[in-house]
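Example 3.2
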Amino acid sequence: MDAGIEKAGVWKMHLRHHLSGKVLLSPGSRRIKMATRLFSLLFLMCSLLGQGCGKRPNSPRQDALAAETDALGRRVSVREYPGRIVSMAPSNTEMLLFLGLRDKLVGVTSFYGAPEKVEGIAKIGGYINPSVAKVISLRPDLVFAARGNSRDVIEQLRRRGIKVFTLDTRTVSGLLADIRKVGALTGRPEEARRLTGEIESEIRDIRQKVGKLSNREKPKVFWIGQEEPLRTAGPGSLVDELIGLAGGVNVARDGKSRWPSFSMEKLVLRDPEVIILGDDNSESPAHRGAEALARFRKNRVWRNISAVKQGRVYYIPTDLLGQPSPAFVVGLKILARRLHPALFPEFPGKKREPQTEKASD
């Protein structure tokens, strides 16, 4: 017997035991009896309809195709896989493209490292300040946000009844988990499984090669995310983890934040043997490494750093190394080759990487 029905029956028997007999009930007692019967009837109806009084209104429906918890702790479920998707971060866009969802994308941020890949898709504004009105006008079934997006924007979309799933990827393992979550919510679980498997295989190959290196054979690396003022990647950042995976030592690994500022005095003292530029300030990335090296050699401070003296200043686009998307594995392979050319004699097989790197060979 249904627990709700049984409880209602016991409750009514209890009432009959106390209220039956030939005792004349007062008008107040009759009102109590009627209210009690109404309560019992409502309880019974609630139980029959499967809407138990203690059930949380936000719990996912039993018939959901998929349900995942996002970076804000929100449980997002889908009863139908989304046919219209909006991405509010370049890294999310890259992930969706890797999963074969371009035909579902109806909105992306204005800036994207490879604009030809998203040609014809509506632009919703910047990563920091996307247009809420534009997103709403695109009638998305699901929006993929990032922790860097304005929380107010995310909440405005939620209040309009739009499903928003927020990603906050900081580690390789977190990125692999996010790929699986996005795959589950978009009906691409098999594609996500294959993609994460390929990434894990690439990482294993790199680890096997650099795992035999001694600490002395691992060069000190400094990654430049911004030159003025000088900012780099500190502990807990994806770049810091990738430098370690590629067989290097991040000179900013003891920083106080994930993206700390860095003084020139400290940089001279740490004396990195390899400098990686990851900023997006150059209009000609193919010559970014060579241009920076020539400029550093003319500077009386920079030219005394080992990386500059040895000509080991390279440019790796942010969308390959600093951005939390599946493309990071290509950036990791380029970085490993830059740090250990004898172990990795060939560039990755993707066409764009040799072109962006050749100027600083």
